[in-house]
Structures are given as C-alpha cells and as structure tokens.
Amino acid sequence: MAAVLDISALSVPGAREGQQLAWHLTSLYARLIEDSYFSHHFRDHWLLRLGRNAAFVDNHADLILAVDDDGMIVGANTGARQTLQSPNGESLLGHGVGAFFRDGNARIHSLKQDHDGVRLRSWSDDTFHAAISQPRRRSKSTPRNQPIPAHTGPLQAMAGDDATMQRLIAQAARLANKPIDLLIQGETGSGKEVLARALHAASPRSNAPFVAINCAALPESLIESELFGYAPGTFTGARQQGMKGLLQQAHGGTLFLDEIGDMPVALQTRLLRVLAEREVLPLGSDTPVALDVRVITATHRDLAALVAAGTFREDLYYRLAGGTLALPALRERADIGWLIDRLLEHEAEALGCRARLKPDVRERLLAHNWPGNIRELRNVLRFALALADDEGIDMADLPASLATVDTAALPGERVTSPADEQPATPRDSLLAHLGERDWNIAQVARDLSVARSTIYRRMARLQIVDPKYRH
C-alpha cells in the first residue's frame, strides 16, 4: 500500500445523505491516483487501456494492462486483476494478451498502427473499447540486449528479442533492396522459406510474383521442363501452345529455390547459364527469353562440402551465394517463449479455439530440444489445440514425442542429479539460484560463467519476473 485517503470524522455536522456521495468521490479519486501511479511506473511499456465507454477509454479506463513488446502482460491495475480471469486463478503476469482476449495479439497490432475503433472481446464475451499508449522513448544509452519494439515489417515480425535473429534481420533488411542473389542456410524447419518471403515482401519486387520451387520434390525427369518451360510440340503429350516455365513465371519478381543442394548436377549447368546471362531458353526453342528475376536459394546441406565432394558446381555455388544468411536452430534462440505465444495465437485463430497454455505445458515446451525446429513447434501446437478443452492445453494434450524431457541441458544451467526423484525444470533451477543470491543478477551470472545479458534472456524466455517489478 502506497497511501491512504482518509475522509473519516468524529461527528457529522449535516445530513448523512452526502456520505454516500463522499464515499464514491473518494473511491474514484483513489482509483485515479492508483492508475496514474501505475501508468508512471510502467511508462517504459505499452499501456493497453480498456473501457466499456469509448469516450472515456483514453483518460478513465476501467482496465489497464502493461504489455511488453512481445504482447506479454507485465503489469495490471486493480480493475484488470478483478475483471480478468487468469488460468488456474494465478497471476495475470507472464501470460500473453491472447490468453484473455479473442484475437488479442492481432488487435494490439492494429492499435499499434494507430487504428481507431478497435474492440477487444474477452473469452467470457465481455467487449471493451481499447486504446494503447507507446512506451517512453528510450535513451541512446539503452542496452543493446533490450527487446526491440515489434514493428510491422515482414522481416521484423520474424523474431522477438533474440540477438542472433535481430542481427540477421538487420542484415536482411539492408540486403532486401539490393540486386544481390542470396543463399539462406539453416536446419530443416527453421523458417528458410518464411525468411525468403519476408525478403521479397520487403523488396521493391513485392508486387511481382514470388515463385517457390522445392528442388528435392520435383522428379528429375520433370524438373527441366518445369523450370525452363517448353515450346509447342516439343515432345509427345506437351501442350499445343507450349508452357511458360517457373523461371519465366517469376519474371519481375523473386524465384525461391528451396533445397538447392539436391538439384541434379546436369541441371546445375543450365541454371548457372540462366543466372549468368539473365535469360532462359525453353526446351525445343532456339530463341532465348530475357529474364528479370531475383534468385533466393536455401538449403540445410553444407554446400561447401558438396562442392568438395564434386556433387555441386563450385561456380554455381559462388554465383548463388552473393550474400549468405544463416538461420539459427530453434533450440539456440532466446525468443522461443515469444515464438510459442505467436504461433499459439495464430494456430488458435485458424482453429477457432482459445489460445491458452497451462504453466507446466509452457515449461515443457521451453525445455524441449526441437529437432524439427519451428515446423515441429507449429505441428505440436496445432495438435494440442485440436485436443484441448476450453481450459487450455494441458500435458495430456501434447503428442507422445514430448512425453519425456530432453536430457540435453541448456549451456551454463545447472542440472539435478539423476538420483533426484523429481528433476528440476530449467525454470525451477534458475529461480532457485536467483533466490539463493537474493536476485543479484550479476552474482548469478558469475556463478554460471555467463554474461548478465544471458541471464536476462533466460529469465524472459522462462517467464521469470524480478520481484521488484511484480505489481
């Protein structure tokens, strides 16, 4: 408690009818003071104001939520705590807005774009008018590991506060407008095509076609005609008018060649000529067709090793790799909690169900090694949402592949003895260590031989909030 408003008196000089009015006025001003203090305390966060009357929502909101850049609730005023029902009766803090409002993240995105007239509907079907205020402008001395505000660009929408991804996005943003062919490397399911589409959307070619080809999926007997097209009457069964190949279909836009490492060697020679001459020769034709296309390739293979083995042309490799972008595996990313909430909201909206995770399920997802990366995470969430009831996803809804905890521990984190009856989760281990050191982040970082920024990232990923910020 910060203060008390006292209107008591030893005697009543006049009629008692005015006491009820005095009580209401005092309660009103107490709430206004509390909300003003709350807004000042969380001035470095997005403040989501909700009210049943649109005219008063900006200055006299019924509910106020402090939200971080990833849509996670970090603070709630008394009205919000009394009105919103949190999962299992626990604190609102650490939950995404989508846990309490239908299409919550999408609505907040609209608010951040200064869209008026946005309403949020809770899962109990209460409707609120909404307004949002921006965080206080951070000074130039803000640490580089602070979360980056969620802007609207297709590239920025790919990541939360993971430092590796933010560096990659910064590079991609500079390369998007340059006439350079790019090679994207990353494990299967890490989001290579998503990055390619984001590059296309951020480029001057965004209104032209984006043509994606999986080189590993096309039969070798068809890949040549599919890529280059053919002239009328080239072979038996061909279309009478001929066919425009995928390369020509991408004219003016972007051609995405996925799994380029699986392209047959014989076809690599023809592709090299297309890239060098910027023209394509359809099968059965002797007239080349000029081609204006930006080529983005992707692979999970080590192309340099394939070159050394003689299964991939060295000159094609250097032609494709005008610039190389390496996507990290999901297990290496510090923003996995942000990704879980973003994909959960998206999949729940597609299935028309409620986006909510039980706390033990969230910890299980954070602890998983994710060999299939983002594709595996999306499939797990889709499967679990299809089985879950209105109370949200619990452990019984997860697929069998997540029934046991991965044995690989996160770097720098302490693990419990195999003899322990109930091994601690990464979240429990970090919480225990923070408690032992009285939440001295610097001391915990020294104990684990890691940087303080690493501890802050783990705290954000595991939804751990310092007690002094719990309001």
UniProtKB/TrEMBL annotation:
GO molecular function, one term: DNA binding
Annotated GO biological process: regulation of DNA-templated transcription
Disordered: annotated span: 132-156
SUPFAM superfamilies for this protein: Homeodomain-like, P-loop containing nucleoside triphosphate hydrolases
Record has Mitochondrion as a keyword: no
Sigma-54 factor interaction domain segment(s): 158-386
Keyword terms of this UniProt record: ATP-binding, DNA-binding, Nucleotide-binding, Transcription, Transcription regulation
InterPro entries, per database record: AAA+_ATPase, AAA_lid_NorR, Homeodomain-like_sf, P-loop_NTPase, Sigma_54_int, Sigma_54_int_dom_ATP-bd_1, Sigma_54_int_dom_ATP-bd_2, Sigma_54_int_dom_CS
Pfam families: AAA_lid_14, Sigma54_activat
Family annotation (PANTHER family): TRANSCRIPTIONAL REGULATORY PROTEIN (PTHR32071)
Annotated protein name in UniProt: Transcriptional regulator AcoR protein
Species of origin: Salinisphaera shabanensis E1L3A
